[in-house]
Amino acid sequence: MQDNIPKPVLKNNAPILAPTGITEPPPRKLLDRVSDAIRVKHYSYQTEKSYVQWVRRYILFHNKRHPSEMGGDEVNAFLTHLAVSENVAASTQNQALCAILFLYREVLQQELDLNLDAVRAKRPKRLPTVLTVEEVRAVLQQMDGVSQLVAKLLYGSGLRLNEALSLRIKDLDFAQKQLQIRDSKGLESRLTMLPDTLVETLQLHLSSVKLLHLQDLEHGYGEVHLPFALERKYPNAPKEWIWQYVFPSHSLVKDPRSGIIRRYHIHESNIQRSVKSAVVNAKIQKRVSSHTFRHSFATHLLENGYDIRTVQELLGHKDVKTTMIYTHVLNRGGKGVISPLDR
Fold first, then answer.
1. pLDDT tens digits along 5-41
2. Is residue 243 part of a domain?
3. Which residues touch 149 (CB under 8 Å, ≥6 apart)?
4. Catalytic residue among 160, 168, 262, 263
5. What's the pLDDT score for residue 269?
6. Same domain for 137 and 115?
7. Are 243 and 149 found together in one domain?
8. Could you tell me if 166 and 207 are in contact, meaning their C-beta atoms sit under 8 angstroms apart?
9. How far apart are CA 318 and CA 146, in angstroms?
10. Which domain, by its residues, includes 37?
11. 291 catalytic, yes or no?
């Protein structure tokens, strides 16, 4: 059956114009395009916020010039300003550089005439702060509730803080006494130990978490964020128990990307404040953060004679050289050398 719609006639190879009333969508703003490119790469929301912020600062620093009109000289000037005028740390300057490189390579599809060795700041090499077993015990005794449970996981399993807070119910294997760490740093996954002393405490904690989840379901909520495209593939999964966070937040919030009301895990700052307060109360005269528990985990395993390859696997380090830093901690000071004064 032939269509009654007349076909367009080309005159002198003229392009076919869009029908009347149909307009092309407006072009996406540059910062929105940066966000789109980051989501295609499956970077975290924190990375997205950080990169967008650095791109905005880079543009404002050059009086709102479009980045496509600028190049290596402007990037160098911005990074120099950060180091000289704002006195930022090397890690901060390198983060800004990574964001700008992402802008040019992934969004603008433009290569920069830039000497990376000249503009990338060299980070100082520092040995990690490590607590003794007695100091770890003293800090943990000054904590309670969920914060103490998270801190015990950091030390007992060698987790990063975001790894502990991102744990879901399905990642806990009580039968095998192990944890499944998924999509961690570099989107790597690994298995690590679940301390025997935390099994009963975790199971008791999960009983209260399940009650909270059931209450959310009764009120029409109960969804959690799922990684990648799992939410489209399994529409009912966001409300299933196994996908819920082990350490859910106290309040429901709107997802900044989808707009759906959800319950996320507790914020990192809550644990960080609790650790800082516990260190002060325990009168520990060291610069301690939540990551110090992970450093202490590795060092104490090596002290107890465990193989460095085993420690590397538990920590999830790609290169054993990263794990080797803890052997330097063991060999420092009185642990590796006897002072001539003591002789």
1. 454 444 455 554 555 555 666 778 899 999 989 888 8
2. yes
3. 198, 201, 202, 205, 247
4. 160
5. 93
6. no
7. yes
8. no
9. 30
10. 30-119
11. yes
